[in-house]
């Protein structure tokens, strides 16, 4: 006689009785054979009694224990997602930082700019394009603050990278959580 059984969501079979006994059956595994109208739990088949006589039955649990187990599993799974999101966010932080890293002026360039600004003091036109405009962080830097251009670029760069990384974290976490629940729903 040939048997079929359900392993997770897959229908396995046809298998012989010996093959069925050698499989990883549990008491509540659904089994079917010719002559049956519907699937039944493996523990309901007399020919499988020898397997289950040596295995104690499942420990009964209360509804509160089941809820606690489900909540604990959910918490653990979400904590793992949080750790993955933090790891991916760290990688994103490094990538965002490298992509947005501004050019910094050398000490010589800063000295030249300071000398030039001192010479042009009071002039109606000052050309600073040689030192300014090389970075997206150069917008709206007051003329008097130009000697501190490296610090201004650094501060603006850090604010930009931190805000982009903050956004990336929530996008990554959201995608992971949604993906988990979509995957869980399809199981």
Your description of this structure?
With 187 residues, the chain is α+β, with helices and mostly antiparallel strands. It has 2 domains: 3-53, no CATH class; 97-186, no CATH class. It is 53% helix and 9% strand. A 4-stranded antiparallel sheet has the order 2-1-3-4. Strand 3 (30-33) and strand 4 form a beta hairpin. Helix 3 (63-100) packs antiparallel against helix 5 (149-186).
In short:
The protein is of the alpha+beta class. It has helices at 17-22, 49-53, 63-100, 107-119, 149-186; strands at 3-7, 10-15, 30-33, 40-41.
Beta fraction: 5-15%
Strand order of the largest sheet: 2-1-3-4
In N-to-C order, the SSE pattern is EEHEEHHHH
State the helicity in percent bands.
40-55%
Number of DSSP strand runs = 4
Count of alpha/pi helices? 5
Q: Indicate the mean pLDDT.
A: 90
Which class best fits the helix and strand makeup?
Answer: alpha+beta
- Please identify the oligomeric state: single chain
Biggest sheet details: 4 strands, antiparallel
Total number of distinct structural domains: 2
Straight-line distance between termini: 31 Å
- Note poorly predicted spans: none
Taken from the alpha-carbon principal axes, the silhouette is rod-shaped
Rg for CA atoms = 34 Å
């Amino acid at each position: 006689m040939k048997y079929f059984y359900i392993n997770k969501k897959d229908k396995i079979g046809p298998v012989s009785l010996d093959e069925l006994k050698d499989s990883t059956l549990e008491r509540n595994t659904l089994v079917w054979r010719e002559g049956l109208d519907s699937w039944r739990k493996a523990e309901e088949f007399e020919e499988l009694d020898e397997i289950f006589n040596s295995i104690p039955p499942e420990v009964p649990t209360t509804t509160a224990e089941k809820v606690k187990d489900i909540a604990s599993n959910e918490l653990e799974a979400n904590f793992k997602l949080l750790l993955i999101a933090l790891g991916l966010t760290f990688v994103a932080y490094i990538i965002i930082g490298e992509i947005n890293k501004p050019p910094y002026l050398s000490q010589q360039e800063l000295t030249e700019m300071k000398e030039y600004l001192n010479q042009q003091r009071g002039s109606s036109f000052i050309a600073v394009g040689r030192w300014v405009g090389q970075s997206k962080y150069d917008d709206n830097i007051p003329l008097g603050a130009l000697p501190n251009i490296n610090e201004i670029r650094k501060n603006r760069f850090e604010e930009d990278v931190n805000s982009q990384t903050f956004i990336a974290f929530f996008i990554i976490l959201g995608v992971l959580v949604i993906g988990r629940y979509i995957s869980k729903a399809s199981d």
